[in-house]
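Fold it.
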Amino acid sequence: MAKRKIVLLDNNDSFTYNIVDYLRGMTEVQFRVINTHELDIEELDKYDGIIISPGPELPKDFPKLFEVLQRYHRTKPILGICLGHQAIAQFFGADLSQQLPVVHGQAVPMQVLRDDSLFSGLPREFRVGLYHSWLVDPKTIPARLVVTALSARGVIMAIRVTDLPIWGIQFHPESHITEHGLKILENFIKLT
């Protein structure tokens, strides 16, 4: 079987290289890290899937993410993590709101609400690591997005696009305080 070619879009986040460490351990993956600000969008044509990394700011501070989503949302599997999740939600019509209180370095219980291939082989509830100041506003979720997981406090932890292989996760699968994080990334790779 040919290796899946994955591009990891780096939004200037220190957690990006935790994702890199996970990808390095996957024998079925060939990957490249590209800084979003330096991205030549056409270069992504040669990849099978796209991972959008976390970042320290807001999606609007990375306008190329929206260009990537516009160009590839119909043709490539995409996984957005934290800021990437928020960018996907905004691209499809949701709004963000500030998370109060801010949560950084906290592990919280997450409930998977429905069967989804991203969570295949995982329990319905497990702990995930949070590092965010913004969240997807649940009152603004458009019909094209489905919420697939919530935190115990009701914060949206995962979404997917109803008719496309696109997922967003608010939590950090690459964090050591997230249970089953590697399995989630492996599931995404299998879906590319």
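Helices lie at 16-24, 63-72, 83-91, 181-190.
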